[in-house]
Design brief:
CATH architecture of the largest domain: 3-Layer(aba) Sandwich
Number of helices: 29
Radius of gyration: 31 Å
Oligomer: single chain
Largest sheet: 8 strands, parallel
Strand content: 15-25%
Structural class: alpha/beta
Helix content: 40-55%
Number of domains: 5
Distance between the termini: 63 Å
CATH superfamily of the largest domain: P-loop containing nucleotide triphosphate hydrolases
Length: 804
Amino acid sequence: MAIRIEQNNIFLSVRDLVKSSPAAEFLTSFPLPQRGLLGKNAQTKVQQARQKHYGLFHTEFTVKQSYRYRNYTFHIHGRIDGVYQLKHRYEIEEIKSVILTPAQFRTLRIEHYPHFSEQLLYYAYLLQDAFNGIEVRTFLILFNLTNNKERTFPVVFNRSQVEQRLWQRFSHIIEQIEFEKHRLKKRQKLLQSIDFSLPEKREQQETMMHAVAKALRDKSHLMVSAPTGTGKTAAALFPAIRYAVEQNKKIFFITSKNSQQAVVAQTLQPLLDQGLPLKAMMLTASEKMCLNDVYFCHEAYCPYIKKYKERLLQSNILPGLVNNSFIRPEQIKSTGRAHELCPFEISMDLLNYVDVLIGDYNYVFDPAAQLRRLFAARDYGDWILIIDEAHNLYDRGMQYLSPYLERRQLLSLLSENKGKKSKIYRDLVQAIRSLDAVFDALQQEGELHFAGHQYFVTQLDNEKLNDAFQQFEAAFVRYLIHKIRTRKLIPDDPLEDFYYAFRRFSRVARYQDAAFVAYYNAQDEGILHIQCCDPSNYLGGIIDRFHSVIAMSATLDPMDFYADVLGFPDERTARLQLDSPFPPEHRKLVIVPDISTRYKDRQKSAPQIAEIIKRVIQIKEGNYLVFFPSFNFLQLVNLFLGHVQSEKILQKPGMSEADRDEILTKLKKEKGSHLLMAVMGGIFSEGVDFNGEMAIGVIVVSPALPQVNYARELLRAYYDNKNGSGLEFAYIYPGMNKVIQSVGRLIRSATDRGVVILIGERFADEAYNILLPEYWFKNKGDVEITSNYTESISTFWKTLESNS
């Protein structure tokens, strides 16, 4: 219920008064954007027809009234679709769209849509009060989207009956408010019995908890750079939970990887086991929640979404799920299978019942995947957002806002549909040709001004692009209706795939900003890109709507860089930099210079790197992790590594989480020595722990600088122009971030011991090593730059043994 309460004043819309009801026309095969568009188009069509024939007809007629009930004042507002202002009476129309077969539409009964009639009658009640009790007549217009037909139903307006229903709704709303007040007091009392003590006391963790608590009290944001092992998850979550219970807020904990979500669950579960008065739920993507062999959301194909709303109410499964303190995906899937209901839709219907959500970045920041049920409003003041491994949000933000269109896909759609005789397909083909004309113009521009160049920056013709999209969207909507009418089932429909790609592209194209650069790639028939160089305005606009945002990472350095690119407002953002909680003498860092790891020198340096790896793992037997900037470099060094005393394990492209977990179990349980060779930024370098003897050494080969390509060079040029730091923003900062993340796999607890070897001349360069964390250099000799690495490492291990 989207109502606002200020002391004893309740602000709400007419729609908020209407009891929810499963719409008889509910079709999951219509994604929300199209369904909303169809309804709006139908309403506009009916309104325009009325205005042509009746001069006294007014559209979008605003009504506002206030009513005192018990100790509250209800302030109600709404907009009526159509009002006829006649001399002695008003006639009002509410226009609603349905999706029915022609036969169903001809025989439908208005009783099937009680929520439509209820909304209309509330409008009549408000309008009558606004105009001194004038007579009001009410009509419900139903427009069938499958055949563009409409039917008009007179609805009897009995003021006393509507008034009685209105007072009942007021009473119900007040009961809900009072219930929430009582529930809040009960939760606050229960909170006092929860033990928030931590397994071990860490000064850095306590410092972070105090900073988080202060940010929440001040309604400000907090950026935290804290080394691995600090206990960031608990340090963010515990004060957030306290505050959320005390102030009736909700928490959304978002991560970039599923493995990180498991850590959040492990941190939260002991509190829930004690009776923490909160409900938590972990969100999983719809594809992973699907119970079918083929992921295809269509009522005619999937029994789990057929008449979903109606069957959900009949099943009454939500209360049972809400009884769980932590609602997990497997529970939802099991319940969905038992009742033949879509698990993902169930999870969406549970959103309003939970206090702590755990999920991916996409649910908050991706324009195509954002949870509109939660974030439809402009203000997210009821929510606290915690962003784990926040350094990853920069790349994600750029990805969300860097769409592309492939001409090859256009040509394929033209080939598949141009021979079809139906007008629907002719309209689609015509719209696709309009977009293809844009590609023609780009091809000519390239041949004329950029001969011999694969890429060139271009200026988008937004007027032509927008016209082409509107033409395609109108045709596509008719195509969707045609599919429903003819019961066509097309899994992975290329027209639908293209629609979503085109819609994302056209939306991003509207940003008239230097941060968005359009460029053309003449390869593969032609690809039109928009490169977002700076997502800060977009990300910052979302961040600043929350009550507070806690952004944390082991590598949120340099903090000025991340504050800039993530859009955190200076005036509302506090910053916290923490030292490692573990003794520096437990770790030895050695930089091996005099070896070039630059791309052009890798063939020559690969044998030297292989020799360093061999020597390091011979000094002390155990498990070692070697991280490379790419799979190609990994394979090249492996060729020269040959046979070693340790069992080699190589990460392969496309490895699944199950594959990773199997390897982690092997390192944890099997005796003997292992050499895991992996890539930075991959599934082994972030969001996983190598505790104890799982790893006693990390070897990093080269800074993991992003590959030089046209898009990356656009970033460099943009930041050169913005702040003179193009090389740093585009290459060095992201590359060194991955290095520090990889090193962070080593020391995860107070009992861990290990060595870190950074191989490459650039690690000895001030432009790179100035970015290494300050806590690495706490004592003299903690970091050595030396070619005599074997002596340094041997001395470290001997010192540890003698001390123990």
